[in-house]
Amino acid sequence: PSSRTNTPPSIRPGSRSDRRGTRSTSTPIPSGEWGTAADNSPEELYEHWDGAVERSRAAMARVLAVGGLDQPSKFTTHSGESPNLRRVLVDLHD
Q1: How many CA atoms, within 13 angstroms, populate the side-chain half-sphere of residue 68?
Q2: Are the CB atoms for 82 and 76 separated by under 8 Å?
Q3: Residues near 29 by beta carbon (within 8 Å), at least 6 away in sequence
Q4: CA separation for the pair 36, 46 (Å, rounded)
Q5: Where are the alpha helices (DSSP H) in the chain?
Q6: Is the pLDDT of residue 72 over 70?
Q7: Pick from 28, 56, 72, 74: CA 20 to 30 A from residue 85's CA?
Q8: Whole-model pTM above 0.70?
Q9: Is 37 in a helix, a strand, or coil?
Q10: Alpha carbon distance 61, 57 (integer Å)
Q11: How many of the other CB atoms lie within 10 Å of CB of 21?
Q12: How does pLDDT run across 18-62, given as a tens digit for each residue?
C-alpha cells in the first residue's frame, strides 16, 4: 500500500488555488533526463506538475479533434498490433 493520496492537486495544500500569484521562475526539467526532486521547492514541483497537466490536456484535445479515441495509436506491440487510443488510455489509467 502506498502512502500517496488520491486527493486532486487543486485542493492539496500548496496547490494552484493556494498559491495564486506565486509562480516560480525555475528552469523546466529537460525531457529524457532523470534526477531527484530533493532540491526543488514545493512551488517548483507544482509548476512542473501543472506544465505536465497542461501538455497532457492539449495532447488529448488534439487527439479528440483529429479522430477520437477509436483511431489506432502510434504504439505498436511486439506482435505488430496498434491498439486504439482508448485502449492505451485505459491501460495507462489502470
Answers
A1: 1
A2: yes
A3: 35, 48
A4: 15
A5: 42-65, 85-93
A6: yes
A7: 28
A8: no
A9: coil
A10: 6
A11: 4
A12: 443 444 455 565 666 677 788 899 999 999 999 999 999 999 999
C-alpha cell at 81: 498490433
Q: Find cell 502512502 and name the residue.
A: 3
Cell of 40: 526543488
CB-CB contact of 61 with 77 (8 Å): no
> Where does the pLDDT of residue 7 fall: very low under 50, low under 70, confident under 90, or very high at 90 and above?
very low
Reading the block at residue 70, the C-alpha cell is: 477509436
Q: Which residue has the cell 502510434?
A: 74
Residue 76 corresponds to which cell in the numbers above?
Answer: 505498436
Q: Which of 2, 5, 12 is nearest to 43 (CA)?
A: 12
What distance in Å separates the CA atoms of residue 67 and residue 41, rounded to the nearest whole number?
40
Cβ neighbours for 75, distance < 8 A, ≥ 6 positions apart: 82, 83, 88
